[in-house]
Amino acid sequence: MNDKAADRSISQTVRAQLSLRDMVLSGHLRAGERISELQAVDITGVSRTPVRMALVRLEDEGLLQAIPSGGFMVKAFSERDILDSIELRGTMEGLAARLAAERGAGARQLEPLKQCLSDIDELVRQDPISVDAFSAYVALNARFHALLNELCGSAPVMRQIDRVAALPFASPSAFVMAQSALPEAHQILLIAQDHHRAVIDAIENREGARAEAVMREHARLAVRNLRLALRSRTHLDLLPALALVTQVADK
Amino acid sequence: MNDKAADRSISQTVRAQLSLRDMVLSGHLRAGERISELQAVDITGVSRTPVRMALVRLEDEGLLQAIPSGGFMVKAFSERDILDSIELRGTMEGLAARLAAERGAGARQLEPLKQCLSDIDELVRQDPISVDAFSAYVALNARFHALLNELCGSAPVMRQIDRVAALPFASPSAFVMAQSALPEAHQILLIAQDHHRAVIDAIENREGARAEAVMREHARLAVRNLRLALRSRTHLDLLPALALVTQVADK
DNA sequence: AACCGCAGTTATGTATACAATCTGAACTCA
DNA sequence: TGAGTTCAGATTGTATACATAACTGCGGTT
């Protein structure tokens, strides 16, 4: 029925969503640009109903913004929006870590985290880290954070964290990649890994306040380094998601 | 075109959304119950397209849950989900307050907050607070929190706060109402008002950490009292939103 | 008696036709 | 020449028809 890559196993809605998200993230649709339904139909090749669904979901994710008179536009993010999002994420992850500690996460639940931890250890051991190892690191880092958040055992908390994490620049992978542009990248990785170790230790010993503080510091490290990376606009092509950033004088 | 109360000024989608939300919140649709699109069409009187839109948006709000095989069901919340949501809200409001303090909210921006503060003062002065005054208090309290969150000047932070606040039991009004069931209700109101005063003071003096701590304590007060109110199941009919609570052994 | 399979039914996913609203431009009148 | 009005085009909102996938119940078989 469709011309290109018609994988029947996934729905038209999801296909449209993926396609449109790619267009936004890759910068083919610039921030502030209006995107009409018909236009989206042309892009994705599916009809208006699933396209509309996809647009609503992308608005929900925060990539698009509804226009009062109808339709959607690509959302524009300022640099501060991005830094705030990371700080927000860190704050909520701090809450999750504290809850995990206070409610006594069992040793059995901590096991996969420790495994993940030592997996990362192996990777960051090599100093000029290889490209392959680095992408493996990004994946493991995301996994670590996901496992950590699960420990709190609170569906509302996890849900909210996932929401901000859906923003491409608030994901753990994103700021790791951005930081990799800095000369002291390897050292940063080591510090981050120490944070990971500390938060597990805190949870194990039921030190809620410490677990929270560590996760907050973890985020602040990311904020500081991402700011530096944005200042020295080097290797930003590593992170296409940052193409969304526009220094619009919105306020 | 439609039979009942066809107010042309609002869209069918919004009307369906309001109608369905009422049904859920009023308990006409019980937690865990599956709700099909056709059923929703019968209830709302609009056709499938806007109904589907409304269902997606309600899922987004957190009132509904998508069923993997398709369709939606009314989400079931445990008591802990509710308490966690309030704590989560307090955590994010704490972040907002800290940002407001650190970034130096101007005296001009603080003015409406102080106005709101003294308006509430007038209300809580009377000890057996009248019913009218109480509902006015609920409205003013919500307004105060909204104004406070705006002070941080960060769109992502405000957006996330609004998301949890959309959950009926995480709204400031909700826990105020729940607490009103307690015998020491008036005293609680006075303490809460003191929190409000303290956070403004902290922001004015650029004491970020203090502003954050106050908002957290504010939430913890709400958590503690709501827990008590839920224990002594008195006057819970004041808060229909709590009908969503089901102590399902979900885990 | 229990289980596997098939068919009928129902519900959701998708496409498209129609209606209403909004935008923008051109034309007219002061 | 400028402002207001009207008409045309386009775009979104809504409804509905069609297709496909999931569920249910019955009947047959082992």
TrEMBL record, chains A, B:
One of its GO terms (molecular function) is DNA-binding transcription factor activity. PROSITE patterns: HTH_GNTR. InterPro entries: GntR_C (IPR011711), TF_FadR/GntR_C (IPR008920), Tscrpt_reg_HTH_GntR (IPR000524), WH-like_DNA-bd_sf (IPR036388), WH_DNA-bd_sf (IPR036390). Keywords: DNA-binding, Transcription, Transcription regulation. Pfam families: FCD, GntR. Residues 10-77 form the HTH gntR-type domain. PANTHER family: TRANSCRIPTIONAL REGULATOR, GNTR FAMILY, TRANSCRIPTIONAL REGULATORY PROTEIN. This is GntR family transcriptional regulator.
